[in-house]
Amino acid sequence: MKHKLREKHKTIRDSLTNEEIIEKSKKIKENLFSLPEFKNSKTILFYSSIKSEVKTEDAIKDSLALGKRVVLPITNKGQKALEIFEIKDSKGLAQGPFGILEPKKELPISKEDLDLVIVPGIVFDFRGHRIGYGEGYYDNFLKDVKATKIGLAFEIQIVPEIPAEPHDIKVNKIVTEKRVITCGTNEKT
Q1: pTM value?
Q2: Which of 100, 111, 84, 94 lies closest to 133, judged by CA?
Q3: Degrees (nearest 5) of the Cα angle 132, 16, 120?
Q4: Which residue from 41, 100, 55 is spatially nearest to 73, judged by alpha carbons?
Q5: Intervals of the chain under pLDDT 70
Q6: Does 2-182 carry CATH code 3.40.50.10420?
Q7: What is residue 147's three-state secondary structure?
Q8: What does the pLDDT read at residue 52?
Q9: How many CB atoms lie within 10 A of CB 127?
Q10: Rounded to the nearest 10 degrees, how much is the dihedral formed by the CA atoms of 87, 29, 9, 163?
Q11: What is the pLDDT of residue 35?
Q12: H or E stretch covering 33
C-alpha cells in the first residue's frame, strides 16, 4: 500500500512544471516563515531539495540572513543514518551519495540543539504521517528528536490517511502553498 502511494504521488509531484515548483515553494517558504515555531527557533535542520521536492535553497539562505543556525544532514549509507552539521553559508556544499547537496563535516551539531526540523516527504496525511523514499533515514533520525517537526509539501501531496507502522515518526505540522495543517487535530488554517 505504501509503495503504491509513494509511486502515485511521486508521479503526481513530478508532473509539476519547474515554474510551478518554484512559485509554490516560494509561497510555502512564506507560510513557514510566518509560523511562531520558525520565528522562535534558533537552530533549524533543513533538507537540501532535489528534483520535484519543495525547494529549500531560498529558505536556507534567508534563514542564514536572519541569523538562524542552519543545519543540513549528511547521509551515512553504511549505517543508514543521517549526521547533521551546521553551515555558515550555502556555498561549499557537495553532492552526497543520492545526489543531494551536503555540507562539509566541519561543524557537527547534536540533535538536542535543534529547535525545528524541516522534513521532506512524498506524501503526508492530516495525522502527520509521511511517506518518504522508503529508505528510513528520516524515521531513524527523528525517533529521538524533541524539536518541532514540520513537513513541507505541495497541496497535491496531502491525502486524508496513510497506513502507519510503529516505527513511523509523525510531523507536528505540514506547510503547503495554501495552508498550514496542525497534525492530529481538525485545525487546518
Answers
A1: 0.93
A2: 100
A3: 25
A4: 100
A5: 185-189
A6: yes
A7: coil
A8: 95
A9: 16
A10: 80
A11: 98
A12: helix 18-33
Here the cell at position 57 is: 535553497
The 8-class DSSP code of residue 55 comes to P
Which helix or strand (DSSP H or E) is residue 45 part of?
Answer: strand 43-45
Task: Output the nine-digit C-alpha cell for 111.
Answer: 540533535
- Grid cell for residue 158: 496531502
Task: In whole angstroms, give the CA distance from residue 145 to residue 131.
Answer: 18
| Cβ atoms of 170 and 132 closer than 8 Å | no
Listed by start position, the domains of the chain span 2-182
Q: Report d(CA 94, CA 74) in Å as an integer.
A: 10
- 38 Cβ partners below 8 Å, 6+ apart? 32, 44, 116, 150
Give Cα separations from 135 to 14, 111, 141 (angstroms): 19, 20, 12
Side chain identity, residue 100: I
Measured between its terminal Cα atoms, the distance across the chain in Å is 29
What distance in Å separates the CA atoms of residue 172 and residue 150, rounded to the nearest whole number?
Answer: 6
Residue recorded with cell 543540513: 72
Residue 117 corresponds to which cell in the numbers above? 526540523
Strand, helix or coil for residue 87 = strand
Q: What pLDDT, on a 0 to 100 scale, did the predictor assign at position 168?
A: 82
